[in-house]
Amino acid sequence: MVLSVAEKSYLYDSLASKPSIRPDGRLPHQFRPIEIFTNFLPSSDGSSRIIASDGSECIVSIKSKVVDHSIENDLVQVDINVAGERDDSIIVETLSSLMNKVLKSNKGIDTSKLQLTKKYSFKIFIDVLIISSYSYPASLISFSIFSALKATKLPKLVSSFDDLEVEELPMFHDYDLVTLDVNPPLVFVLAIVGDNIFIDPASNETEVANNGLIVTWSNGKVISPIKTLALNDRYINGFNPLLLKNGIKLVEQYGQNIADALENL
Distance of alpha carbon 92 from its chain centroid, rounded? Predict the structure, then answer.
């Protein structure tokens, strides 16, 4: 959406006022409506599709293979593709770096949940496709990955866990599946306008934001990475450090509600 100078000025004043007024009437902590579909890709172990109210859309596919974790210890691989963008574009590389840091950190995906035997583990491949996006898509991607992982089912192991003394490959049940038990972190995008802070900024809000924040949440508390983000190329300036504290409190207060909503689909 391209806004005129007068529209941007009016929108900025509305968002920076006390109390703030968002264009769609949301409160600072409220998200836009989204539609979520899971397990719609028959060839994947887990999948999700999220469509936001502004038309942004993201698809995630989860696939797995058995690897010897003594040789290959990287058990999570994230690949992100954005429609219309090259693989080496700044937006793709930035999002890929962010999601790999989030999911592969000590408080990311618990890889012990992927272990099959003393020698073998599942390696999961997380493929993300952003079909369309009208605002910074980090939260959209994170929510899609969370939903897909929660919907992932892997083959049930029937062979012995201790396979160091007897050389054998893992054997699986013909049709029984086990739900993957992981709690991936969630990434929240926040916009700073004046002395106010907003979760899930829409495209018109990002156009007048003075700055942006990326805040990561997991299991009831905020974790790293936390970083600033330029949401536009005109209104960017510094902000009061207290706003960072307010943003963290906002995510800590409502993060569990978002996780519960995504998990109870």
Answer: 14
